[in-house]
Amino acid sequence: MGSLGGSIVRKPRFLCLHGFRTSGEIMKIQLHKWPKSVIDRLDLVFLDAPFPCQGKSDVEGIFDPPYYEWFQFNKEFTEYTNFENCLEYLEDRMMKLGPFDGLIGFSQGAILSGGLPGLQAKGIALQKVPKIKFVIIIGGAKFKSTKVADNAYSSSLETPSLHFLGETDFLKPYGIQLIDSYKNPVVVNHPKGHTVPRLDEKSLEKVTAFMDTIEHLVMEEDKNGEEKH
Fold first, then answer.
1. CB atoms < 10 A from the CB of 176, how many?
2. 25-74, pLDDT tens digit by residue?
3. Which of 67, 96, 202, 227, CA to CA, is 20 to 30 A from 82?
């Protein structure tokens, strides 16, 4: 909690969704590459995906198990298994651990985070929890399942969004497509691949400005909420 003009400012609360076949604990380590000045401004909750890893994890030998996955997919990434179960699980955890202001996702968690505001707006997911107000997407992409994508990106998303695009990330072209689905995206380009990048001076400026924006929006919303009561 901080104080701004005499009123108490709470930290924006974010649910963190990890990458494919990793874990909440691993994402915690990955995100803590960011400076304390950024991390300390957010209230972060790290969640494990609902399904134990069903194959080899790319992080074996780098990070310790256990590893989890959010849902499964075919070779073309166009058909999903357990996707509805994943949405139900997320809603349940958000009801128990929330309320949340936003989502931070990496890799498979970023694909989910980037599509959930649209699915929520369409009445397909997260109907029992407050609206997702912000998303931070690291190494993300659009859903490739037509059935899911048609609902997730049917209208331009007004959710304030921060996107990290890696120069050598294999998902970069798809990450750009996702950015095009958002009305006012903030984009941080970095020279690395499919990873949670460290923040250089320029990136830090953009991230700090985004933090200022969301803190202001959270404060305004909380103030309006208090005035209504």
1. 14
2. 999 999 999 999 999 999 999 999 999 999 999 999 999 999 999 999 99
3. 96
